[in-house]
Design a protein that fits this description.
One of its GO terms (molecular function) is Hsp90 protein binding. Residues 45-55 have a biased composition (Polar residues). A hairpin with a 2-residue loop joins strand 1 and strand 2. Helix 5 (160-169) runs parallel beside helix 8 (205-217), helix 8 packs parallel to helix 11 and helix 9 (221-235) runs parallel beside helix 12. The longest helix has 39 residues, at 4-42. The chain has 13 helices and two strands. The protein is mainly alpha-helical. The protein folds into two domains: 7-93; 127-264 and 274-307, Serine Threonine Protein Phosphatase 5, Tetratricopeptide repeat (Alpha Horseshoe), CATH 1.25.40.
C-alpha cells in the first residue's frame, strides 16, 4: 500500500500531467487553425478532413477519459496559515537575514571631525538666571564711557567662595550680551581686589576649575581669550597661586594646547588679520604658559610640557 506522502506525490503528478495536456491541446487548436487557413489558400484538402485528422491525433496522444482542467492552478504543498507554513516562512526570513549579514559592507570614507568646531553641548550657565532673580550683589550702570558694575558693598566683604565661582560660570555666556559683561568684569574686579590677599583666592581655585573647563570646552575664541586673561590675572594675585594650579593643568591645558598648535600655519602671500580682530590666541596662550611656569615652581615646566609638547621653557638659554 502506498503511504500518505506517496499518495500526495501521485496526486501532484496527476495534476501536473493534466495541466500539460491542456497546454498541448491549446497548441494543437492553434496549429489547426493555421493549417486550415493555408489549405483554404492553396486549395488542397478540405478543412473538414484536416480537422478529423487532428482529432484522431489528439485521441491517440491522451486519454479522453480524464477530465480536462478548466484553468491552470498552482499546486500548494502546504496549507496557508498552518504550523508548517509558519515554520517555512520563519526559516526563509532567517536565511535571508543571514545572507544579508554575510554580505560585505561598503567601506565609507570616514570624515575627519573639525577639532576647532564650536561645541554646543556645554551646560548652560546659571549666571543669567541668578542675575534676573537679584542674587548677585551688583548691577549694571550705563555711563558715558560705557557699561560698568556698581557693587552694593565693598568687595573685601563679599564671600569669595560663593560669588567667584558664580561669576566664573558666566564667562562662557555669548559675547556681546549683558551677562557676558557682568561675568567677565565681575571676575576681573574680584581678582583685582584680592591682590596680596591669598586667603581669598586659594580656597576658591578648586571650585573655579570646573567653570573654566566648561568655558574652554565651548572652543569659542572670545571665551578662550577671556579664560586666558583670567588665568594670567590669577597668577599675579599671590606667589602661592601658581603651585596650587599645577594639579589642574590636565583640565585647563588640553584645550589651550589645541589653539596653541593652531598658529604657525603657512598662509602664503595672504595676510592674517586676527591680531586686529583680537582673535590671535597663540601669543596670549604663550604668555600665560610662560607666566604659569614662572609662578608654578620647579615642577611647573614638566607638567606644562606633558600637556603642551611644543612649549619651550622660558628659562632656556
Amino acid at each position: 500500500m502506498p503511504r500518505g506522502n506517496d499518495m500526495f506525490e501521485l496526486k501532484l503528478r496527476k495534476k501536473l500531467l493534466s495541466q500539460q495536456l491542456s497546454v498541448v491541446d491549446d497548441k494543437f487548436d492553434r496549429l489547426s487553425r493555421i493549417l486550415d487557413k493555408k489549405i483554404a489558400i492553396k486549395g488542397g484538402r478540405s478543412s473538414q478532413s484536416k480537422q478529423t485528422s487532428l482529432e484522431s491525433a489528439k485521441r491517440s496522444f491522451r486519454n479522453t477519459s480524464e477530465p480536462e482542467p478548466k484553468k491552470l492552478m498552482v499546486p500548494q504543498t502546504t496549507i496557508p496559515g498552518s504550523k508548517i507554513d509558519l515554520v517555512r516562512k520563519r526559516n526563509v526570513i532567517r536565511r535571508h537575514n543571514e545572507l544579508e549579514r554575510r554580505k560585505p559592507k561598503p567601506k565609507h570614507k570616514m570624515e575627519r571631525a573639525d577639532p576647532f568646531k564650536i561645541n554646543t553641548n556645554v551646560p548652560e550657565s546659571l549666571l543669567p538666571r541668578r542675575y534676573t532673580r537679584g542674587e548677585l550683589p551688583c548691577t549694571v550702570e550705563h555711563r558715558s564711557s560705557g557699561l560698568a558694575l556698581s557693587w552694593m558693598c565693598p568687595l573685601h566683604n563679599l564671600d569669595y567662595e560663593h560669588y567667584l565661582p558664580i561669576f566664573m560660570d558666566g564667562v562662557r555666556c555669548a559675547e556681546g550680551s549683558v551677562h557676558s559683561f557682568i561675568a567677565r568684569q565681575g571676575v576681573y574686579e574680584l581678582i583685582q581686589d584680592a591682590l596680596g590677599h591669598s586667603d581669598r583666592v586659594l580656597d576658591v581655585i578648586d571650585l573655579c576649575v570646573l567653570p573654566l573647563r566648561y568655558a574652554l570646552s565651548t572652543k569659542r575664541s572670545d571665551v578662550v581669550l577671556a579664560v586666558v586673561n583670567i588665568i594670567k590675572q590669577l597668577c599675579t594675585v599671590h606667589p602661592a597661586v601658581g603651585p596650587r594650579l599645577i594639579p589642574h593643568y590636565r583640565q585647563i591645558l588640553g584645550i589651550l594646547n589645541l589653539f596653541y598648535c593652531k598658529g604657525g600655519k603657512n598662509l602664503g602671500d595672504a595676510m592674517d588679520y586676527k591680531q586686529f580682530n583680537s582673535d590671535d590666541l597663540v601669543v596670549p596662550i604663550a604668555e600665560v604658559l610662560e607666566m604659569m611656569e614662572r609662578t608654578g615652581g620647579p615642577n611647573a615646566f614638566v607638567n606644562i610640557k606633558f600637556m603642551v609638547p611644543t612649549y619651550t621653557s622660558a628659562f632656556a638659554n
